[in-house]
């Protein structure tokens, strides 16, 4: 298949493109800069120049493709307002891509997040939260699933709080950045709350599997580690950076503070059973050993 990919040069997008190409698909990827275009060409994919806000460009990309994987998201997470703008941009992009595929039975696979369920690990059948800093993303996914009744094989890959690769990525990456800035490996709350995690190379395989075979209107969990205690994560970061490990206020992490403080383990048992997905790459705690002072 010829697949149109947005966000193809990020932590997730880079291995997704490589996985698609190695599995015999061809890829057309959105590039918003010369550097992104060069990286996409170097990977062996075709380039479509434009930004996620260029809705006409997104229509062109979808029209040329047998399927779409939507990974792009705004890069400014510094304030709640910036996060809201990023969610709105993502929502408009998904709506545009979906409209371009109506009646075609072509797949549209979008990224979302695993939900948090008090007292247990969330599963693929649990609804996404509509409240909190990123609750508005749930409305975009709900609209995506409505397209299943209009001839779009829409599906969602729910990502855990940390998608990592060589010690970088996701909430753990933000924690590392904050630790360098503060001079302390800080964690919110009492540190017992759990974060699910997965290696980016394992995520790439799941996106391909969902693209190729998932039924319309379905959600899948890209979770390898059901939940690592935040204090354990901070302890590895502190040891690798040579910093003390201490509790810090939630607002240390800006708009993500409330999420960082939540206990939010997640399961991928259903995804593994139905799609045959089996993570094979290092766990988060193992991968954080790649951090350099």
From TrEMBL:
Q: Which InterPro entries match?
A: Epimerase_deHydtase (IPR001509), NAD(P)-bd_dom_sf (IPR036291), NAD(P)-dependent_oxidoreduct (IPR051783)
Among Pfam families, the record links this protein to: Epimerase
Specify the NAD-dependent epimerase/dehydratase domain's residue ranges: 3-215
One GO molecular function term of this record is: aldehyde dehydrogenase (NAD+) activity
Q: Which GO terms describe its cellular component?
A: cytoplasm
Q: Where are the annotated segments for Disordered?
A: 113-133
Q: Please state what the protein is called.
A: 3-beta hydroxysteroid dehydrogenase
């Amino acid at each position: 298949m010829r697949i149109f990919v947005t966000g193809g040069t990020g932590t997730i997008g880079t291995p997704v493109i490589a996985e698609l190409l190695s599995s015999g698909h061809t890829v057309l990827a959105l590039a918003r800069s010369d550097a992104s275009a060069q990286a996409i060409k170097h990977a062996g994919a075709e380039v479509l120049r434009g930004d996620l806000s260029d809705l006409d460009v997104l229509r062109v990309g979808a029209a040329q493709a047998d399927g779409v994987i939507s990974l792009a998201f705004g890069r400014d997470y510094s304030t709640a307002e910036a996060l809201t703008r990023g969610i709105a941009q993502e929502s408009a992009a998904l709506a545009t891509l979906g409209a371009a595929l109506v009646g075609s039975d072509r797949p549209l696979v979008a990224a979302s997040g695993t939900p948090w369920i008090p007292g247990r690990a969330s599963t693929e059948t649990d609804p996404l939260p509509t409240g909190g800093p990123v609750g508005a993303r749930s409305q975009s996914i709900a609209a995506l699933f409505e397209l299943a009744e209009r001839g779009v094989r829409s599906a969602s890959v729910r990502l855990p709080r940390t998608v990592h690769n060589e010690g970088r990525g996701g909430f753990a990456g933000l924690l590392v950045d904050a630790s360098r800035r503060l001079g302390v490996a800080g964690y919110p709350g009492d540190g017992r709350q759990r974060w699910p995690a997965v290696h980016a190379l394992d995520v790439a395989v799941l996106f391909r599997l969902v693209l190729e075979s998932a039924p319309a209107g379905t959600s899948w969990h890209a979770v390898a580690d059901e939940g690592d205690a935040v204090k354990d994560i901070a302890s590895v970061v502190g040891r690798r950076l040579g910093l003390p490990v201490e509790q810090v206020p939630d607002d240390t992490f800006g708009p993500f503070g409330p999420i960082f403080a939540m206990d939010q383990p997640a399961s991928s048992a259903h995804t593994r059973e139905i799609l045959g997905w089996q993570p094979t790459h290092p766990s988060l705690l193992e991968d954080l050993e790649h951090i350099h002072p």
